[in-house]
Specification:
Immunoglobulin-like; five-stranded mixed beta sheet; 5 helices; about 5% helix
């Protein structure tokens, strides 16, 4: 008899790498835009700060007005000439500063990035005679003074227009340290995918479970090392995509494309893709605006018959693969200091997975469906130029169905004694209904304690509702002289409500060109499971196995994660940054709850381990950066990673 159980392992990884990055006006080489991830609002907006000076005397100008043009956002410089504007959506802006007695100065193309504090200083000229407005084009810096991690920003235009790619994940794969879906040698599940600062992954599998149109992307942030205490449940990387707001001008777009693949046997036009988007302002008022709102809606539709359209259409009356995605956002500026945003995300997939064993009976392949939605509301409020808070609430649901058969008696094998032979008749014996619902509450508070300290704290709560009801059959060779196959039944049913909670605090400190990010994170995971009394045959194993299987309930896990990053200037054209951190992530929850009833009816049963510990990574990174030319940056990065509690499968073999 064979029996498998999930368990934990540990390994160590070390590596040194380097890269040369070149900044081009056309942005063809996009990963040169390395920017820092400062402690700002999580995953949605950035911050603009700086000082206003008299150009001739160098004195600060208290009371100068700073305005982000095209928005309702602005502020006044304080007694030290310092200003700060929180909650700026990622994107490019024109920012102006003005004061009585001075010529207005406007700086164009100021790029605001997710979780980034953009420092922008103004130098105003005395207006002795009427002067025209001074307009300056901002140049993106190759080296950011507060960069303490390996962080990359990719714009929506680069994803949709510049790069020869199909999705944002293709852009991630082009970045240094990334191979496919793996970052720096880590497992695929160690990466957290987020949309507007909230996760879009299944808790059961850690796979991406929601998709969205490319046209809705304004910016993507990728962190491959040294991410701050704000981010948890990740051991190798953070990928956060920020979607568009409506803007102050009506916009729209349409894109359709198909293939021209022609084998002479199947014809062409096997893949068809359509994408639409529209957005703009909504203004309601009587004699003046009473309500200022923005909307943006993007949708796409994908249909595919694969390259074997004629063969497939003989078995199916619809495309083998179909998918549509919808992302919508509605934002209200309740006041100049308060913004309310509603967002809806819907993703639907239908497909059949080809199996060579079924090539003579394609109509017997089970149809698979996946549907997900996420509805969220966020409220952001600026209490003062130096104090900002946001709260986000989201409802996220995934549903997977496999519409096969629960009765394998109609299967006809080409060779009745060979379970690997082709199947001539029957329906794929696989039926599955899996549901997953996640309720999320996230709160963040940002305070500028002084010109040198930016403090941030927040909490994150996630409540899961997991339900699985699935059954499939595995064909096994017969025993003895009979030619009939044995069909082993594999069933898995569970219903659990685990919970996650996290609290973090971090400080961004800047003193004389040195920047430091210090933070700590406290995670709590409660599996909320008490196992039922196992069947008799499972209890008998306890006396036959060396490893005891007596755990009856899941234990609460509560790890603490320290994070530290420092950036030191070596000269005007070179900097060195170092970061160190502990990172924890619970394994895919299916590994805890699989076969919770501990049934041994199937031929090779898997049993989850409710006492699995969180996967732990201890990471250290060193990075040297030097500007070689005005558009050329050299980066040398080395890192070490120590993995603990990686999930593996422990197999027990017992004589019958």
């Amino acid at each position: 008899m064979y029996f498998a159980k999930f368990s934990n392992d540990s390994i160590l990884l070390q590596r040194l790498g380097f890269k040369v990055q070149r900044k081009l006006c056309t942005s063809v080489v996009f990963f040169c835009a390395l920017l820092a991830a400062a402690a700002l609002q999580a995953g949605i907006t950035g911050t603009l700060s700086g000082k206003v000076f008299d150009k001739e005397t160098g004195q600060v100008l208290p009371g100068a007005a700073i305005v982000v043009e095209g928005t309702t956002m602005g502020t006044m410089a304080d007694k030290d000439g310092f200003y700060m504007i929180h909650n700026l959506p990622a994107g490019s802006y024109n920012v102006s500063a003005s004061m009585i007695g001075y010529a207005k100065q406007t700086i164009q193309q100021v790029q605001i990035n997710v979780d980034m504090n953009k420092v922008l200083n103004f130098y105003l000229s005395t207006e002795v005679l009427p002067l025209k407005e001074v307009v300056v084009t901002n140049q993106r810096e190759l080296i950011q003074s507060d960069l303490t991690s390996s962080t990359y920003f990719v714009s929506g235009d680069e994803i949709n227009k510049t790069l020869p790619i199909d999705s944002y994940r293709d852009a991630v794969a082009l970045l240094p340290g990334v191979v496919g879906d793996h970052i720096r040698g880590s497992r695929e599940g160690g990466v957290v995918y987020m949309l507007d600062g909230l996760p879009i992954q299944s808790g059961l599998s850690r796979e991406i479970s929601s998709y969205f149109p490319n046209s809705s992307i304004v910016e993507m942030m990728v962190q491959t090392g040294g991410f701050s205490a704000e981010y948890g449940q990740a051991t190798s990387g953070i990928i956060n995509v920020v979607t568009k707001d409506g803007g102050n001008k009506a916009t729209g777009g349409f894109k359709f494309y198909t293939d021209f693949f022609d084998t002479g046997l199947t014809g062409n036009d096997n893949t068809r893709r359509l994408e639409l988007n529209v957005g703009g302002p909504i203004t309601v008022g009587f004699g003046g605006p009473l309500l200022h709102a923005q909307y943006f809606v993007a949708a796409d539709l994908n249909l595919s018959d694969t390259s074997f359209r004629k063969q497939m259409r003989q078995a199916f009356d619809a495309p083998v693969f179909s998918n549509y995605n919808l992302n919508s956002k509605l934002s209200f500026d309740i006041s100049t200091n308060t913004r309310l945003t509603f967002q809806g995300l819907v993703s639907n997939w239908r497909w059949r997975k080809f199996d060579s064993q079924w090539e003579l009976n394609l109509s017997g392949l089970a149809e698979q469906k996946h549907f997900s939605h996420r509805f969220s509301v966020s409220l952001a409020h600026t209490f003062s130029p130096k104090l900002f808070a946001s709260i986000r609430i989201a409802d996220y649901a995934n549903k997977k169905e496999v519409l096969g058969s629960t009765d394998p008696s109609d299967l006809l094998f080409e060779d009745p004694s060979d379970p690997t032979s082709r199947i001539l008749e029957g329906t794929q014996p696989w039926r599955e209904h899996t549901k997953e619902r996640i309720d999320v509450v996230k709160f963040d508070l940002v305070g500028q304690l002084s010109d040198h300290h930016l403090l941030k704290t927040g909490l994150d709560f996630q409540n899961y509702k997991l339900n699985s009801d699935k059954i499939n059959f595995t064909a096994l060779p017969s025993l003895g002289n009979t030619r009939s196959l044995i069909l082993s039944k594999n069933a898995d049913n569970f219903d659990y409500t685990p919970q996650f909670f996290a609290l973090y605090i971090q400080d961004n400190l800047r003193v004389k060109g040195i920047s430091a990010n210090l933070g700590i994170r406290y995670d709590i995971f409660s599996p909320q499971i008490v196992l039922p009394e196992p069947p008799q045959e499972f209890q008998e194993l306890r006396t036959r196995l060396r490893a005891p299987l007596t755990v009856t309930s899941g234990q609460t896990q509560a790890p603490i994660s320290p994070r530290l990053g420092v950036s030191i200037p070596l000269s005007d054209n070179e900097r060195l940054h170092v970061n160190y951190g502990w990172y924890y992530q619970m394994p895919p929850l299916y590994y805890l709850y699989a076969n919770a009833g501990r049934s041994l009816d199937s031929y090779f049963p898997f049993v989850g381990s409710v006492d699995l510990k969180p996967i732990k990574t201890i990471s250290t990174e060193f990075s040297y950066r030097r500007i070689v030319a005005h558009d050329l940056l050299f980066v040398l990065t080395g890192f070490t990673k120590q993995f603990e509690n990686l999930v593996d499968t422990q197999v027990f073999a017992l004589p019958d």
